[in-house]
UniProtKB/TrEMBL annotation, chains A, B:
UniProt KW keywords: DNA-binding, Transcription, Transcription regulation
Keyword Zinc applies: no
Organism: Nonomuraea solani
Domain (HTH arsR-type): residue spans on this chain: 28-123
Lineage summary: Bacteria, Bacillati, Actinomycetota, Actinomycetes, Streptosporangiales
Protein name: ArsR family transcriptional regulator
PROSITE patterns assigned to the protein according to its UniProt record, in alphabetical order: HTH_ARSR_1, HTH_ARSR_2
Length: 123, 123
């Protein structure tokens, strides 16, 4: 699979583009805004952003909690709290296998965040 | 200009796709995570999400503060506080003209949020 970076347009094109990003296309309703703000709060934390990126980029697409704790100067319960916030927001899934709990990223929920702020493709 | 919604893939394709979203491609460093978390905190609020969407979708691409207050059951100073948070995060610009302050969305900063969570286009 080949990939290309999303185009970030400039000047007049940028103005056209932002018109079409869902966040700037039409006013958000109260309930939709509340739901999206809760999802954004789940990722609006440096430790949780790092955990999400570590889980997503881990070999095999999943990470054991034992792979995650060493990178942080935080206690295991604190790491667990942050993982629970990500899981409650539907951004990661988890499963216990033997001694350890394993985590993986839920792509659709991550993509939902992206789609909110991404100018729609022009065609 | 015609538009198409970003494709949110499922199953095996979804796993391929999330591998390529910047948030899940490689572990974020501490300073990058701190900076992105601050930007996300600016939008992780229902009032600020609604303000951003109202400004972006307003006719002419900019909105007077007088266009924004009626939709909320909030005082003018509270609305001003939320607008200041968005402006400080670089998500909107503003300019006083006569009696009113006008606001517009900064597309590149909005697109930066989107790019973090968006699977790279496949080609």
């Amino acid at each position: 699979m080949t990939t290309t970076l999303p185009l970030v347009p400039k000047g007049k094109d940028a103005q056209d583009a932002v018109c079409c990003a869902p966040i700037a296309r039409q006013p958000l309703g109260e309930s939709e805004a509340a739901e999206l703000a809760a999802l954004l709060k789940a990722v609006a934390d440096p430790v949780r952003l790092r955990l999400l990126s570590m889980i997503g980029s881990h070999a095999g697409g999943e990470a054991c909690v034992c792979d995650l704790t060493d990178a942080f100067d935080l206690t295991a319960p604190t790491i667990s709290h942050h993982l629970k916030v990500l899981r409650t927001a539907g951004l990661i899934g988890s499963e216990r296998r033997g001694t350890w709990v394993y985590y993986w990223v839920i792509p659709a929920q991550v993509a939902r965040l992206g789609a909110l702020f991404t100018p729609l493709a022009t065609g």
